[in-house]
Amino acid sequence: MRTFQQKGNNHHQNTAWARIEYRTEAGLGIYARQSTLAQVKNYRQSTEMQTDDLVDMAKHLGWDEDHIILFTQDLAKSGKLRIDQRTGLRSLIERIEKGEFKTVLVFLEDRLFRDETGIQYNIFIDVCKRHSVLVVTPHMTYDFTNPFHVKQFRWRCEEAADYLRDYVINRLHGAKNRISESGRFAGRSIPIGFIIDRETSMIVDGKVAPNPTYRKFIPYEPHAHIVRWLFQRYWELGGKIRPLCRELQQQPFVFPDFEPDVDISKYIALYHLKQTAGGYHISRPGLMGLLTNVAYIGYWIHLGEIVSKNNHQAIVEEDLFWYAFSRLSPYTITGERNEKKKGYIRYSRKEPIPALLKNVIGSQEGGRVYVSTSGLTHKPIYVIEERNQRLILKYHAATPCQEIDDLVARRLVEHMKRTKQFERYQDYAAELQKERDQIGKNIKQQVAEIDKQMDGILTTLSLPKDTLPKKLREKFVAKYTLLEKQKEELEIQQATIQTNSHAQKLMEYYSLINRIGQQWERIPFIHKQALADALIKQVYLDEMTGHWLRIEVEWLDPHWGIERLYIFRSGGAHKTWTDEENNIIHDLFLNTPREGILAKLPRRSWVAITLQARKLHIHRQRNLISTCAIPHTLSIEDVTFMKGAGINMNETSCHKWESRHLRLPSVLLAPGQKWPPCPPLEHHRFPRP
Description:
Among the domains are: 27-171, Rossmann fold (3-Layer(aba) Sandwich), CATH 3.40.50; 201-328, Hect, E3 ligase catalytic domain fold (Alpha-Beta Complex); 422-509; 570-659, no CATH class. Helix content is 40%, strand content 14%. The strands form 7 sheets. The chain has a 5-stranded mixed sheet, with helices on both faces. Helix 7 (221-236) packs across helix 10 (318-328) and helix 12 packs antiparallel against helix 13. The protein is globular and about 105 Å long. This is Recombinase domain-containing protein.
């Protein structure tokens, strides 16, 4: 006898076209992504469609703003990256697993994945299915309990990956590779001295004929003759690059401006060209790249290999070129290490230079900061390089490491002594550990999915050869290789996570707060440096004037914030005196009032000026009356800075830490701006040097 059961409630759709009910009382996550930072900047309409328009769509579907969360951390990341490599997608999945979201809104499926292996979107499908999460796009809503929706979503993701592989990589890049392999221009950088021949045809004996140099390099004579001169001059200087750099540094420009009809976009990056009045200057690395570029003798390189030694017209004689190449290139034309390259003797140290902040120090106003040893005191110093160095390497400022290290170390210990809320650091460490566990869990899921697919491929490949077409078998082999490579990368990432004990080290340091404060001097240097690396995000060292330095510390602990202090250097920066400055001393030192000379030399103190006058054998008239209140050890530049920073005139140190709010303006003057006059003499006296 047949029995009938009452029809139960089915919360999930059974067909592809059944109506879907959105759970607007639960959270909704909006995921947005662009492949590169340039796309984020240049295609703002696309970014807005993935953010603003989707928010409007969510509201139209019934969600209020309190339940909408926007994930934009991956706006400059590729869809080919794994889930564990994308902060935004990883956070989205984590909150899905917590049950915070029941709906994900995305502009297109390819915003989530462009995965050739299928590993990433299969994991995402599984997570959404287990937690009853819908994925909504403007053209379809996916419920992964419905097999048709799973199939459709996979097809969309596969389509995106196929487009990337077949059209972008194979077709577009393949076409460019074929053009480049034939010795013709396909979009690479152009060595200065050449332009691209854009003429497709030419007249030969009154008839139109194909142009043999079409899309090839041809000499651009306004620059080609300078390239020849550079090679010639390098030979004349005996293969010495520094004298050549010094000569070029004295010139207003090396290459004149391009003619108006020349597209300059392909020239600038290759040799680090910098536009100046009248033309372009070249950097030292750019100059060395120029002197070793085989394109100047007609060679054509494609994918690292020489495809032609007579591809286009050479503009440099081979003897001159090989003279420079053999002295400057670290490798030979065949890719072997160049044993003839002229090098410099380097003396290695048995022990590293002891500098506490070596791994975290930098500069905001200057260039790179590195550790060296003073030639005068033989003690460690921090050296600030000039920003945007071109041909001649210069340092901007230098100061002993010991003073900077001691100031920052004392402040670090003070912070640790004042830390009472130890639970907060336990919470912080727990958050770090939680994030590591989430990444590790995600990696394990990916490895499991890879193993499953690899087993399936091996089973398929074990079938008799006549069962699978040759192209299909090759496709399976290629996918297996790709999966194998991805699994290896994931296992390396997993090992890195397991060995990364930053949270554990942090907790160990905080558990030793009292001992650190009392026994700092007894702690081995290597442990002090590890502590500084663990607690400091960045230290910025900058020269504000010839006598004043600024230290700015950005602590990793957000409660410590960003702090700064100023240091006075009694010795000053010892900048080299220029001919112009020496002429001012010659003209004014004899009888001009002190304030008049200081106004002409605003970056020099009176002590420095008198010492330089002695070196120049220039004497000063006795009993000259001065009304200038500036101390002999300070310059007008120093005084201007001190007023702006709120430092008293008679302070020779300012070791008081302050929280950073607004950056002080630079004391350097704009073109045409004048230094303020010396302040009038007041009743109090200043210490003499």
